[in-house]
DNA sequence: TTCACTTTTGCATACGTATTCAAAATATGA
DNA sequence: TCATATTTTGAATACGTATGCAAAAGTGAA
C-alpha cells in the first residue's frame, strides 16, 4: 500500500482534474453530482484521505482545538475533557491536550498551541497571564476560560453561576435550620471559590449571620486536613459549605474518623456533583454544575468566532441545581 | 502584528537565504555559528515560529501522538493521560486526545489519527480490531497497547506483570490466613482481568484451594452491586481479590452498608493504587501499577520506532508492588 | 601565494491542497 | 433553432517549509 495517495492520483483514476477532487472534499464548494460520484468511487478504491497539513497550510486554518487542563485529580475535569472532545468531534474538530502542572500555562505550551495554529483554545483549570491571552487575540485565535474568569475580564468565560449557587446554598442551609456555618474555600485566587463565597456571605449577611472561613485548596487532602484542624480546635459549626466535592469528601472522612455524625451534628454540602458524590459511602448533598450546557455554550462561541473572528468578550453564567442527598 | 511571518521574512532581515533559516530550525542541519546568530536575532525581532503544517507536509512526519482512551471514570486513566503528555512533551511531541465511548475505537477516530498522520499511537483503555491495527502498520505508524493486549499478539504492548501480581496477591492472602477466597473480575474480555485471575488461580490450585469467580465490569457501581449480591446470597468469602481499585471501593462500601467488618470478617485487596485507595475512609490494600515505568517503556519504544520503523512486536511486562493498608 | 579539500550557502524544486480565472459545458428563453 | 445566462471544469498558482545540488566561502598545507 502506497502511504501517500493524493488528490492527483484520484483525479487521474476518476478522469477529472485535481481541482475537482479538491472541491468534492471542500465543504460548500460546487461540484456536479456526476463528478462527485466519480471522485468518491475513485477515492474509495484508492483509500484516499485528504492531507490535513496541506489543507491547513493553504487555508491557514485548522480543525484542532487546544484544551488546557491542570487538575486531573479532581474527577470533575476528566469529565469536562471527554465532554469537550465529544462535542468538538461532532463538528469535525480534534482536541490537542495540554497539561500544565503550574497554575499558569507554561510558555512552552503556549508555543505549541501557536505552532499548531489551533482554531480555538479552552482553558479549564489553569490560568493564563494577560500577555499570553492578548497574544492569542493578536493571532485571532478565540479563547474561552471555562470555569474560571480572568481578572481583567475582557475575555470570554463560561461558568456556572457561582454567585447564585452560593446564595441558594446559604438559603437552603438556613431553611434546614443551620445558623452557625463555615465555608471551606478552594484556592483563594480562583474566581470560582471567591464567587461561591460571595453569594453565600451575601445571604448570611441579610440574616445578620456570621460565618467562619477556612482557606483550603480544592483537594481531598486539603479538605481532610482542614476539617481535622477545625474539629481539633473545637470549632465545629452546624454546617459546612465546601467549595468543591472532592474536598467535601475529605471533610466527610475527617468527620467520620472523629465520630462526628453527619447530618445530625454537622451538615455538609459540596459543589460540582461529581460521580463519587452519589456513592453510597458518601451520599453527599451538592450543587450540580451543568457541564453539558457549559460545554455547549463554549463550543457555540468558539464555532462562531472561528467562522468570523470578533474577539468579543462576555461572561456567560449557566444556572446549576441543588442535589439533595444524605449529608444535609 | 502580521499573523504570518515566514522564513523568507526572517531571511530578508537577517541577510541570508530562506534555506539557512530553515536549517537553523531543523535539528541536525549544518549552519555556521555566525548565521545562526543572525537568524535567531531576526526571528526574535519578528516573532517568527516555524509553521508546523508546512514542515509536516514536506517531511511527511509530525510531532503528534494519538492517545486513545475510554474510561475516564476510573481515576487511573486520567493519571496515565497526564503522565504521557508530560513524557512526550520532553521530546517535543504533543498529544491528540481521542475519546471513545465504545470499547472499540470508532472508524471516525481512526480516520482522524490517519488524517493527522500521527507519529505514533497509544491505546490505553480501548481495544482495536485487527484490521485497524494492521492499517496503522501499513502506514508505518507505531502502535502501543497500554495496559491491554491484543489477542493476536503481534503488536507491542506494555502492561504491569498481571500474572505475577495475581500470584503474589494469592500468596499474600494465603499468608494472612485466608482460605475461602473470591475474585471479582473486570470486563471479562480484557487481558488484564484474565491474567490477574490466572496468576491468582494458579497459586490457589497449588494449595488445592477453590475460589469463586464473580463477573463484574471495572466500575464502582459494578463492584458495589456484585458485593451486595454476594452478601445477600450468603456467599461471603474470607477475602476478596478485586480486579481494580475503583471496584474495590464499591465492594468496601457495600460491605460497610451491610455491616460486614473489614478486615476482620472479610479482607479486600484491589489493583492499581489510585489516589483514592489511600484515603482515610478506605485505606485499601492494593497492588501498585508502576505507571511511570510503564509510560517510560511506551515512550521509549515509540521514539525508537519513529526514528526508524521496524514494526517489531513485544509484550513488555513491568513489575508492580503490593501496598499494604488496612483492608487486609 | 596556490592548490586541494571541507564546510557553508543559495537556488530551485517538491510536498498536497485550495482557489482564481478563463474556458468549456450546460441550462434557459424566445 | 440560436443567443445568452449560468454552472461546472481545468490550468496555473500559492501556502511555508525541507533538501539535493552546485556554487561560494573557508581551511590548511606546501
UniProtKB/TrEMBL annotation, chains A, B:
One Pfam annotation reads LacI
Domain HTH lacI-type spans what residues?
5-59
Source organism (scientific name): Planomicrobium stackebrandtii
SUPFAM superfamilies listed in its UniProt record: lambda repressor-like DNA-binding domains (SSF47413), Periplasmic binding protein-like I (SSF53822)
GO molecular function terms here? DNA binding
> Which CDD domains does the entry link to?
HTH_LacI, PBP1_LacI-like
Q: Which InterPro entries match?
A: HTH_LacI, Lambda_DNA-bd_dom_sf, Peripla_BP_I, SBP_2_dom
What keywords tag this UniProt record? DNA-binding, Repressor, Transcription, Transcription regulation
Determine if Transcription is one of this entry's keywords. yes
Protein name per its UniProtKB record: DNA-binding LacI/PurR family transcriptional regulator
